[in-house]
Design a protein that fits this description.
The protein is of the alpha+beta class. It has a single domain, classed as 2-Layer Sandwich (Ribosomal Protein S5, domain 2), CATH 3.30.230.10. It has four helices and seven strands, in the order ββββββααβαα. The strands form two sheets. It has a five-stranded mixed beta sheet with strand order 1-2-7-5-6. Strand 1 and strand 2 form a beta hairpin. The longest helix has 19 residues.
């Protein structure tokens, strides 16, 4: 019987609007790569839903947003990062990923907390879509038009 090597990782969850992101930081040891389901990840690589992060969140603005927590604590190439994100749209998913990355960094080293907290990266943005009320004509706050005559 072959004993499977256990891989050490840190996990955190980020949420925004209706998006949920589960972030895992894998500790890459002497083998220099980690097997995650069907993908071999090397140190410094990031995958979102089994795609490279640059393919999933394209554009320079998105890259600056998701790399900001890692750059802040100088940990860009320290971990192999796996992210599973679901729900919502592009903007909500990106914000959920940033919160998840920040929370994961906090778990890795408690000394990162003041840096991340000062930049507002550990604060959950609780704004969600308002529910539609009865009698509002299809919108959350809009009142039905009344006839003038």
């Amino acid at each position: 019987m072959v004993k499977k090597a256990t891989v050490k990782y840190y996990q955190a969850i980020g949420r925004r609007k209706s998006s949920i992101a589960r972030v895992r930081f894998y500790i890459v040891g002497a083998q220099k790569e980690v097997m995650m389901q069907t993908i071999k990840m090397k140190q410094g690589e990031m995958y979102v839903n089994e795609k490279p992060i640059g393919e999933y969140f394209s554009g320079e603005v998105s890259k600056n947003l998701y790399m900001y927590p890692l750059r802040l604590v100088s940990a860009e190439d320290r971990f192999a990062v796996s992210i599973h994100v679901s729900g919502g749209g592009q903007s909500g998913q990106l914000s959920a990923v940033v919160l998840g990355l920040s929370r994961c960094l906090e778990k890795v080293n408690e000394e990162y907390r003041p840096l991340l907290k000062k930049e507002g990266l550990l604060t959950r943005d609780a704004r969600i879509k308002e529910r539609r009320k009865v009698g509002t004509g299809g919108k959350a706050r809009r009142k039905k038009q009344s006839p003038k005559r």
